[in-house]
Amino acid sequence: MAVAADSQMVKRLKVMKKCELCNLSGADLSGMSLARANLAGANLRGANLEGTDLSRANLRGAKLDGATLKDATLTSADLRGAHLNGALLTGANLKWTRLERAWIRKADLRGAKIQGTRFTGATLEGADLRDTNLKKTNLAKVILRGVNFSGADLEGHRFGGLNLSGANLTNANLQRANFTKAILIGANLAGANLSKASLDNADARNAKFASADLTGASLRRADLSGADFTGATLRSANLGGAELVGAKLVKADLSKANLQDSKMTGAISIGAQFIESNLRNSSLLSADLSRADFSNAAMGNANLGAANLHEASLEGANLTGADLRFADLRASKTGGTRFAGADLRGAKVTKEDLLYAELVEAKLDRDLMAALNIEPKKKPAADDSAATAAVPSQKTDLIPEKIEKTKLSVALVDIVTIPPSSDEIPHARLNWLYHAGDGSGRLFVVDMRGKIHVIRNGRVLPTPFLDIGAIRSKYLYHRHFETGLSIFAFHPDFTRRGRPGYGKFYTVHTERGSAPKGSPLPRKFASPIEQIIHVDVLIEWTVDRNNPDRINPASLREVLRVEQPHKSHNIAMLAFNPTARPGTADYGMLYIGSGDGGDTIYSGFVDAQRVAQDRTRPFGSILRIDPLADGDMPYTVPQDNPFVGKPGHLAEIWAYGFRHPIRFSWDSGGTGKMIIADVGQVSVEELNLGVPGANYGWSEREGTFVVDHEDQTNVTRLPSDDSKNRYAYPVAQYDNGEGTAITGGFVYRGKKNPDLQGLYIFGDYDTGRIFYVPVKNLIFGRQAKISELTLHYKGQPKTLLEIMGGENRADLRFGMGEDGEIYVLTKRDGMVRTFQPITGLQSNR
Q1: Is 194 inside any structural domain?
Q2: Does pTM top 0.70 for this prediction?
C-alpha cells in the first residue's frame, strides 16, 4: 500500500532525515531535500523521488525497485547493496555514488551523470545506459549482460574479463577501451568506435561489428567465430591467432592488418580488403573470398584449401608454400603473385589465370602443367643430395582399361530452363529432379539456393512448390558449392489418404546456428570435432490440402540435425525404396546418404577423424529410419536395421565406410539392386551394391586400393591377406584419369529409348561424360566394364560441355520421371534435358 505524502512517517523524515528500515513504498518524496538522510534498508519500492536531493544520503541495502529517480541528485550517496531493478534514473546525478554490489537490472540510466561512480560487483544486466558519459567510472567485476550502451562514451574503459554477452554498444565511443578476456557473445557493436581498443583473448562469438571502426585495434587470439564485420574498418588491426571461423567480413577493410596464425575457416569475406595484410600461416579453409583484394599481402604457408577466390586480386601477394588445393582461382588477378612451392592441385584455375604468376616448384595438376608447358621433374637419385624437391610426376594409371565412347548413341534434347536464382553462373544450382509417384506426370527440381520448382507439361509453374529461403531466411546457408537445399523425397504414402505418410515430403538443407525458438526438438548428432561450420537439417513437410502444387509452410517439422565440421560431404541423398511394397519391412523407410564431413583437405590427412569407420557416428554412412513421428520421438529406428541392439553402434546406420555417397537408387525393373555412387578422394570413383551392415572401406580403402592417410595422392595395391578385412568393394570403378567426381543415376526402365533398357546410367560431375553399365553385370567380386554414351545434339555429335556452349565444367546431375525416363541436369546453365532415340540407333551391348 502506497504511503501518503502527508503521513506522519514522511513528515518525520522531512524533519529528522532518518527512516532506517521503514516502509515508504509508493511514497511521493519528489522534490524533497533529503541530503545526508539515513534511509538504510528502507523499502522505497515504487516511490516517487523525482528531483529529490539525496546527495550523501545513506541508502545502503534500500529497496528502490521500480522507483522514479528521474533528475534526482545522488552525488556521493551510499547505495551499496541497494536494489534498483527497473528504476527510472534518467538524468539523475550519480557522480561519485557508491553502488557496489547493487542490483540495477533493467534500470533506465539514460543521460545519467555517472562519472566516478563505483559499480564494483554490481548487477547491471539489461540496464539502459544509452548516451551516458561513463568517463572515470569503474566497471570492474560488474555483470553487464544485455546492457544497452548505445552511443555511450566509454573511451578508455576497462572491461577486461567482464561478461557483456548480448550488450548493445552500437555507436558507442570505445576508443582505447580494454576488453581483454571479456565475454561479448552476441553483443552488438555496430558503428562503434573501437580504434586502438584491445580485445585480446575476448570471446566475441556471433557479435556484430558491422561498420565499426577497429583501426589499430588488437584482437589477438580473440574468438570471433560467426561475428559480423560487414563494412567494418580494421586497418592495421592486430588479429594474430584470432578465431574468425564463419565470420562475416563482407567489404570489410583489413588493409595492413595482422592476421598471422588466425583461423578464418568458412569466413565470408566477399569484397573485403586485405591489402598489404599479414596472413602468414593463417587458415582460410573454404572461406568465401570472392572479389577480395589481397594485393601485396603476405600469405606464406596460408591454408586456402577449397577457398573461393573467384575474381579476387592477388597481385603482388606472396603465397609461398600456401595450400590452395581445390580453391577456386578463376578470373583472379595474379600478376606478380608468388606461388613458389604452393599446392594448387585440384584448384579451379586456368592457364590464363596464372600466366603472369611465379610458379617455381608449385604443385600443379598434370593438365595445368601441360597447358603451362611445365615439365614434371624427375625424382632425384638416391645419391643426389643436392637435388631439390620436384613437382610430383604423373601417376601411373591405376585402372589401365580405358572408358571408351561406344556406338550406342542418344540424342540429348532441351526440356526447360529453370528460372535463375542468381545473375552469376551458376544461374540455377540444379541438384535433383524426381517425381511424386502420384500419376500427375509432374517433375520436381531442386535449386540449391532454396527453391523446389514444379515442371508440368514442359513448363515451370510460376510459384515454387517450396521456397525454404522465404521460410527460414535467417538460417538457410547456401554460399558454398555443397550447401543449400540439396535433396527431397516423397513418402510412398504421399497419395494414400488415411495413411500416416499421406501428403508427407522430406527435404535436407544447410543452416547456420541453432534451431529457431519454439521448434520441436529434433534428434541432433554432434560434430566429430569442436568446430561446427553449419548444420544439415532434415525436415518433414505436408502438402497444401487446397493446392497440390504447394507445400504448407506451417507444416514444417524438424526430424534430425547433423552438425558438420566442414562445408563439404554433407547429407547429399534421401530416398525411399521404390521397389518396397506396402506391408513389407522396407516400405516407408527413409535412406539417408551422409558424407564423411570432408575434413581431408582441411586437416592435411585423409579422414583425420576416421569418422567413416566410426559406427557411433552418422558420418560416412547410409542411415535408415522411419521418418514419421511417434509421440515425442521425431522418428523411429527400424528393428531390422543391422546394428540395432549392438553396443557401440549407432542403430540408425544401415551401411558404412563411405566417403561421400552422393547418390543411390534401386532398379525397379526386376533385379531390385540398390546401386550406390561414392565420390573418391583423388584416385578412384566407385559404384557399389547396397548391402545392410556392409563396410565399404573408406577411409582405409579407395576403390580397390589401400589409402595412405598422410598422402591423399598415394594409393597402393591390396595386401595378399585383404580378405580378413571383409570390406565390400565396388562392382565398377574408374580412376581420375577418366574424370574427377562420380555422380550417380538410375537403371533405365522407360519406353522411349529401348536400347537403354536395363542400363545403369551415371556420369562424371565435372567433365560431363555420361557413362553406362548393364545392371546385370553389377555383381559382387567382379569389375563391370564401363562405357560412355555418344551424345547427339541438334543432329550433331557433341560432348555435354559443347552442348552447354563451351563451359569448362558441367556440374552434372541426373533425375527420373514417374515413367522411368531419365533427365540430365546441369547447374552451369540451369537446363533440364532428356534422352531421345536416334534413327538407326545401334546397340553394342
Answers
A1: no
A2: no
